[in-house]
Amino acid sequence: MNLRRALAVGAVLVGVCMFILRANGYELYIVALVGLATIVGVGLNVLLGMSGQISLGHAAFYAIGAYVVGILTTKLDWSVWTTLPLAGVIAGVAGVLLAIPALRVRGPYLAMVTIAFGFVVEQGAAEWEGLTGGWNGVLGIPLPNLFGFDFSEREMAFLVLCFTVLSLYLYARLSASPWGKAMRAVRDSEIASQSIGLDPTLIRVTAFAISAIATGFAGGIFASVTNFISPESFPFFQSILFLLVVMIGGADQLLGPLVGALVVVLLPEILSFLAQYRLLFVGLLLLLVLRLAPGGFVGLATELIKQRKLGATATRRRDVMAYLSAGSTGRSLSASDLSVSFGGVRAVDDLCFDARPGDITSIIGPNGAGKSTVLNLMCGFYRPDNGIIRLGEADVTRMAAHSIAQQGVARTYQTTQLFTNMTVLDNVLIALRRGRLGAGTIFSRGGDLEHQELAESLLAFVGYRGPLGQPAGALPHVDKRLVELARALAIQPSVLALDEPAAGLDPADTARIGDLLRKVTRTGITVVLVEHDMNLVMSVSDRVIVLDAGAKIAEGPPAQVAADPHVLKAYLGDEKPSDRRRKRELEPGREAVISTEGLCSGYDAVSVIRDIN
To answer: Which end of the chain, N or C, is less surrounded by CB atoms within 10 Å?
Structure first.
């Protein structure tokens, strides 16, 4: 944090403290509600902003934390200081138990599961009268006591302020940590995250647990502040308000929950003169805000005032060849009797091959031949019906995709799968960890100088010349290919599986990809290449395998395969192509139905057709 920012934060805190010292009881209560909504918003921001999961049941975790404090302090005379951490822990355990089955679904289905959980907790609190007091609730929840000093409403406001600042600080640390990068990677592309060794289920469950802990802790403080709780204190509408806190403030923004809490809590109070119509106007204003600023107030302000600091370009700081050689380990990748069917279609049929260290083994064939399916089987995204896949001596046939990546099998995709909302540098930095996050790094700063230099060196090695701070989703097509290659190499692979790396590239860029692949094989890495560009395949391959309708029809050196009659038949068919040119020119005076003149088109920066007449 620079000096100017520190002074600004200090000035705001001093101002809030001065307000608390002079506020009346009602104003102190509003301050406490803003702080508690911020804490819940921080937890929900981890779930929604970082990991991309929607929850409409967070009022349930809030209620769990409140009832833990309320029941233990009134019925067992426990100290508030003892019950507050316990409230967070029990809510966190509930979050994990909910997350494991809930994360089998996505989008609106996940939202429905969390809504159902909220109703279960609310009705459970209402019906379990012996424990919760039912609709009569729990009364007489005490305020904290510290060294014989009883807290009043003013001290509680200061306590909430301290916990609010702490929650924002911990969020900033989590955001910059490897766990924060991993959560964003899973959010942006679950498939690509598995290819660098990340376990999406573990990461999402962790996000759910952190979110639930923060919400349960805030609920425990709420119970002490209000002195009374009942099922009516935690309606479903409260979950909607918590979600609005994040969305209005700005998802995945540090100050988003604070700004959102100020709007959601204070706006009804400001419009109190409208009496029974105030909630109607609040709803209309919130709809207007979400329409005009979908990224929230903080997101909008950031876009308006920020100066784009995209960072320097990549420079070679480490010996990348030595780094790759250390991870290659000289292991081959082999498949025996590999088969898989989808419905009645035999996508791969009894395929056997052996890809050797230091060689480029290319898999080619017509569209629909099963080439990408073979890569998906190799990398654990599909499970074969029959057959065995071995990495060296290890059987990886039934391993999960992230486990195979941790074993040293890297992957790129026919359509690039970058973490689009992360920077170029962060795309490579998270891959360097090879899925090994560690509990001790959850709130670490994440500024490892060695990893930073290695990530820059990998980007320079593949030929990326753009800014390191550029969002990956804003890159031109060729740079996306290069960054994806650098990310794949970052896991220090034994096997590099490439799915059409030259797709959409012009001949010069394709040639550079070929040179890069030859450099990679000199480190002892096993390269498996699926590609339609025959010039690239024939110029770099040591061995070529040809598939047709899922079955291998040829294998051998490039020149031998190119002359194989079975290969020519698979690509060109049995018959000679018919001459379908126009037999004669158009009759004079007749107009063409469709004509083109100088027609050019393409995708992004890639030119596909040029000057068609």
So the answer is: C
Does the pLDDT value for residue 572 go beyond 70?
no
Under a CB-based contact definition with an 8 Å cutoff, are residues 315 and 456 in contact? Answer: yes
CA–CA distance, 517 with 535 (Å, rounded to integer): 14
Q: Say how far apart CA 245 and CA 104 lie, in whole Å.
A: 26
Coil/strand/helix, residue 337: strand
d(CA 207, CA 367) in angstroms, rounded, equals 40
Whether this model's pTM surpasses 0.70: yes
| Per-residue pLDDT reduced to its tens digit, 374-399 | 999 999 999 999 999 999 889 999 99
- Tokens for 286, please give them: 């919130």
DSSP tag of 213: H
Cβ partners under 8 Å of residue 386, min gap 6: 337, 338, 339, 350
Where does 442-577 have alpha helices with state H?
Answer: 449-462, 477-490, 507-521, 534-540, 558-562, 565-572
**CA distances (Å), origin 261, targets 32, 37, 255, 376, 467:** 11, 6, 10, 45, 36
Cα–Cα distance measured from residue 94 to residue 208, given in angstroms and rounded to the nearest whole number:
10
The residues, any chain, with a CB within 8 Å of residue 188's CB and separated by 6 or more, are 52, 418, 419, 420, 421, 422
Instruction: Look at residues 120, 121, 124 and name the one whose alpha carbon lies nearest to residue 133.
Output: 124
Three-state DSSP at 550 gives coil
Cα gap 379→374, rounded to integer Å = 9
498, 484 contact by CB (below 8 A) = no
The single-letter code of the amino acid at 364 is: I
What pLDDT digit, counting tens, does each position of 28-45 carry? Answer: 999 999 999 999 999 999
Distance between CA atoms of 57 and 166, rounded to whole angstroms?
24
H helix or E strand, kind and range, residue 577: none
